[in-house]
């Protein structure tokens, strides 16, 4: 074991089984709408994927393929730099955007390094999770000088992904029987962020994880991954960890906690994790769609009734986010704030 610090070691029940399993199932959906395809068909495919898996991949998503390539090259070039270069944009307690190499998920350290940036820069949000405290703070991005094109490529990618995010939110709204623009207003001052993930080869992939099991706290996540593989989804039917097969030109989509609440659990946010390996480094680039800080997240009125009463109390997304930040920076003894804290039992 020697080579891996204790902080990275997962408890036995959470370690990866490294036997490669091939399971088909996570849907691959073609987003192109030709004259022959019916939008209703697409909407029902999306609805089924959200319902059965909470995860799916999309092709013909409209994001230029050269841009997918460019952002991966930018990520690799950035992470390939010496630590002292990356540390120049290191995140700290004041600014949570930038480079970071010691993130913890559920109090176990992740085998990865990341670079985070906001889609809207600057972004304003509550300074503290306390409800009675209305102090706000400003978050802004830190951009490295090198590689030279880094900022431009990241921002161009973010703009394209934002468009795709709205398109998917519209399809998801339709699949729930809502008007297509039902969610759009929640994202006017969005707190969405993008993350470049680098998972270096790990000497003990059977003990550590790239990202420990978790659910995404936002509304929707869109991930670009390379061909290495490692992302696994906990299958709803039996809890088996199913790999998301790297598929060229495809993007991975998953439903986050907020859609679970908005839909009153018609769709669930599904647990996932990243397994590492001892040979190849891996890159992935998620964008997390977060609503505006003032949005009160709660089951949508159109989706609840006497027979299906709201399963969650409303919560303020900005305050929720502030509570998450506080705990994700440090290794805490207590559990992170969760949507289950607002569950009506
Ligand atoms: C995440 C995540 C998946 C991946 O960062 O929340 O789930 O493939 N990443 O890196
Ligand atoms: Ni995730």
Automatic annotation (TrEMBL):
List, alphabetically, the PANTHER family matched: DIRIGENT PROTEIN, OXIDOREDUCTASE, 2OG-FE II OXYGENASE FAMILY PROTEIN
Q: Which domain of life is it from?
A: Eukaryota
| Keyword Transmembrane helix attached | no
Q: Member of which family? A: Belongs to the iron/ascorbate-dependent oxidoreductase family.
Task: Pinpoint the Fe2OG dioxygenase domain residues.
Answer: 190-291
Keywords assigned by UniProt? Iron, Metal-binding, Oxidoreductase
Organism in which the protein naturally occurs: Gossypium schwendimanii (Cotton)
Q: Does the keyword Iron apply?
A: yes
Q: Mind telling me what this protein is named?
A: Fe2OG dioxygenase domain-containing protein
Q: What PROSITE patterns has UniProt attached to this entry?
A: FE2OG_OXY
Q: Which Gene3D superfamilies match?
A: B-lactam Antibiotic, Isopenicillin N Synthase, Chain
What SUPFAM superfamilies does the entry give? Clavaminate synthase-like (SSF51197)
**What are the recorded GO MF terms, alphabetically?**
dioxygenase activity; metal ion binding
From the UniProt record, list the coiled-coil ranges.
none
Its taxonomic path starts at: Eukaryota, Viridiplantae, Streptophyta, Embryophyta, Tracheophyta
